[in-house]
Amino acid sequence: MIPYGKHHIEEDDIAAVVDVLRSGLLTQGPAVESFERAVAEYVGVKHAVAVSSGTAALHLAALAAGVGPGTTLITSPITFVASANAGLYAGGKVAFADIDPDSINMSPAALEASLGANPDTKAIVPVHFAGLPCDMPAIKSLADKAGAVVIEDAAHALGATYPDGTRVGCCGHSLMTIFSFHPVKAIAAGEGGMVTTNDDAVYRRLIRLRSHGINKLDDPLLLKDQAYADGIQNPWYYEMQELGFHYRITDIQCALGLSQFGKLDAFLDRRRALVRRYDAAFGGNVHCRPAQICGRDASAHHLYVLRVRFDDLATTRSAFMASLRAQGVGSQVHYIPVPSHPVYRALGADPAACPNATSYYSQALSIPLFVDLTDAEQRHVIETITNLVKPK
Ligand SMILES: *Cc1c(COP(=O)(O)O)cnc(C)c1O
Question: Where are the annotated coiled coils located (predicted)?
């Protein structure tokens, strides 16, 4: 069975992990900072904070953005649930801004309407869907007008570029950007995530929150009588200055992440070559067409999504997926609109308020796209799908 996505591990990745195991420092060692520095330099940002998952990165980013009770976080309905959940974790409310039907990214017009309906919005979380960068200048200017902060969910978009040539993660149009290093994403750390920012105060807050809220760097100590004796800091002393979390990532994970990161450009080249062939195969098909067609050179191509007219083909998506599976082709749906989930329904979310997301969801199908997908396997995927959508 050809899966829809899969990581790619080589012997030098394994050696990098083994080296850490022999080094004596499994966590809180030098691999964490090496990984952070490498990503920060590549994307062109001042600070990077590695954490235990992309979800943890979103949670800390929401807190650092000031999301809390009485405030709202707005995200896209077509994303993984974690983008929205960050708002709830931080104690805030969550609202949605519908997608643009051509990019499958948050529509600036829909964001403007959602900001109007939610004047207490503190954070906007655009998601670079499948690796295609959102219209950041438009989103940033709406955020500025509303007094809200932008957190880019770039879990799909490591290696993607904006139209001005800068890289996703540089935070030119946002306060923070988050990445994920789950094995299905661009590079694997096992589990892992990162927040990037150019803001020094946000950086300090993130590294405190990552480790229980305990003072870090040269944070001033708050309780001088406990901290000092005769003007000298007590050698055992530390302070938990706010309620933080244990969201640290290990050196084992960062060694793997760093080794994989060295191959990112080669991974992206392979993904782009596969995408060009899928685009050529499905571009003119009336029953199944690529969901995104713009920005092909800019996207990091995390997913390849088709929009299939299951109704016109007198089939269901479930039957279609079963036929693919019977011929060894895995597929998946990205994503069930987040407001459709029971937790969000119970909070009053209405999926019908995002008609473009609803329509997209009814047709979406992700087909295999990963570095190790061979040319022969891809030909089999194309042939199998082309036969299934042929008029009978
Ligand atoms: C994978 C993903 C996340 C969460 O990342 P984890 O590392 O799995 O916690 C968040 N947002 C999007 C869009 C994702 O695809």
Answer: none
- Indicate if 93 belongs to the active site: no
Residue 153 and residue 38 share a domain: yes
Ligand 1 binding pocket includes 47 (Cβ within 6 Å): no
- Domain containing 67 equals 11-261
User: How far, in Å, from the CA of 331 to the mean position of ligand 1?
Assistant: 18
Atom number in ligand 1 closest to CA 185: 1
**Over 80: is that where the pLDDT of 392 sits?**
no
> What does pTM read for this prediction?
0.98
37, part of any domain:
yes
182 lines ligand 1 (CB under 6 A): yes
83 pocket-lining for ligand 1 (C-beta < 6 Å): yes
CATH code where residue 231 lies: 3.40.640.10
Q: What pLDDT sits at residue 154? A: 98
Residue appearing with tokens 């100590």: 221
Coil, strand or helix at 96: strand
Tens digits of per-residue pLDDT, 287-305?
999 999 999 999 999 999 9
Residue with tokens 């906007």: 124
Q: Which of 7, 51, 79, 80 maximizes ligand 1 atoms within 8 Å of its Cβ, making it the mutation to test the pocket?
A: 80
310 and 206 in one domain? no
Tens of pLDDT along 201-219?
Answer: 999 999 999 999 999 999 9
CA distance 313 to 311: 5
The pLDDT, as a whole number, for residue 284 is 87
- Answer yes or no: do 347 and 250 share one domain: no
Of these residues, 185, 224, 390, 392, which one is catalytic? Answer: 185
CA 286 to centroid of ligand 1, rounded, Å: 32
Beta strands in the chain, from DSSP E residues, in sequence order? 47-51, 72-75, 93-96, 121-125, 149-153, 176-180, 193-197, 228-229, 232-233, 288-290, 304-308, 364-367
